[in-house]
Amino acid sequence: xxxxxxxxxxxxxxxxxxxxxxxxxxxxxxxxxxxxxxxxxxxxxxxxxxxxxxxxxxxxxxxxxxxxxxxxxxxxxxxxxxxxxxxxxxxxxxxxxxxxxxxxxxxxxxxxxxxxxxxxxxxxxxxxxxxxxxxxxxxxxxxxxxxxxxxxxxxxxxxxxxxxxxxxxxxxxxxxxxxxxxxxxxxxxxxxxxxxxxxxxxxxxxxxxxxxxxxxxxxxxxxxxxxxxxxxxxxxxxxxxxxxxxxxxxxxxxxxxxxxxxxxxxxxxxxxxxxxxxxxxxxxxxxxxxxxxxxxxxxx
Length: 300
Known about the structure:
The chain has helices spanning about 5-15, 20-30, 35, 40-55, 70-90, 100-110, 110-130, 130-135, 140-160, 160-165, 175, 185-190, 205-210, 215-225, 225-235, 270-280; strands spanning about 245-250, 250. The radius of gyration is 19 Å and the shape is globular. The chain has a two-stranded antiparallel ribbon with strand order 1-2. The chain is mostly helical. It contains 16 helices and 2 strands. A hairpin with a 2-residue loop joins strand 1 and strand 2. About 45% of the residues are buried. It has 2 domains: about 1-135, no CATH class; about 140-300, no CATH class.
C-alpha cells in the first residue's frame, strides 16, 4: 500500500462507524472544487442517503445493526475517491490501483464518461471483493444487490454506448443520464423499487411483484434483454473481465445460485414490457434476442 493509499484508508476509517460523517466525506469530494464537478454527485449522494435511511451504513454494533456488505462496498468507493483527491494535490505520488487512476483522471478533466468509468469501477470492485459478505445476506437483499448493479451498468451504457442501451432511441440516452443532471436519479433510485427497511421483510417474489411500474419497465423491458451485451460492454469499459462471470445464461447471478434463477422471471410479463423491449430493438428475456450485432465503440 502506498503512503497516499494508507492516508486515504485512515481517513475513511475515521468515519467508518458514523453514517453522517460518511455522507459528509462523500460530499466533500464533490465540494472540493464546486465550480468544476460539484453537480456530478447527484446520483451517488442520493443513493447514499437512501442507504443511510435504510440503516445499512450503521455500524454492526448498533441496534439494529447495519449491513457489513453495503458498508464495505461504500467504504471502497470512499477510499478510492479520497486517495484520488489526495493525489490531485500531491503530484509526487501514484495511484495504488486502476480505479484510483480513473478518479484522478476525472478530477483533472471532468466529464460524464470519466465519472461513470471511475464510479462504476469502484462499485464493481466492491462487488467482486466482498462476495463473501454478500453471501451472508438474505435472498431479498441479494436480489437488490443485483438490481443495483444492473442499473448502474445500464446507466453508464446509456451515456457511453447509447445504441446498445436504447437501440433506435439512442439519441435520448446521454441527455437522460448525464450525472450533472438530477434526471439520472430516476434510473439509479432503488427507493421506487424496494422497501426502505433493512432487512427487507417478506419473500423476494412479493417484493418483486410490488415493484413500481416504471421501475419494472426499466428492469424488465429495457435492461434484462440486454444483460449479456451490457456486461460485456462494462467489462471492457472498466477493464474488469471478471464482471461477465456475474451472469448465469443471461440472468443476474451475483451471489445467486442457479436453482433460484426463476425469481428473475417473476413479473417479467405483459404486452407493455414486450412493446417497450421491441421498440428499443430487443425482445424480452425469455425470447430469442435479435440484438447480436457488435455494439459501437464507447465514447471516450
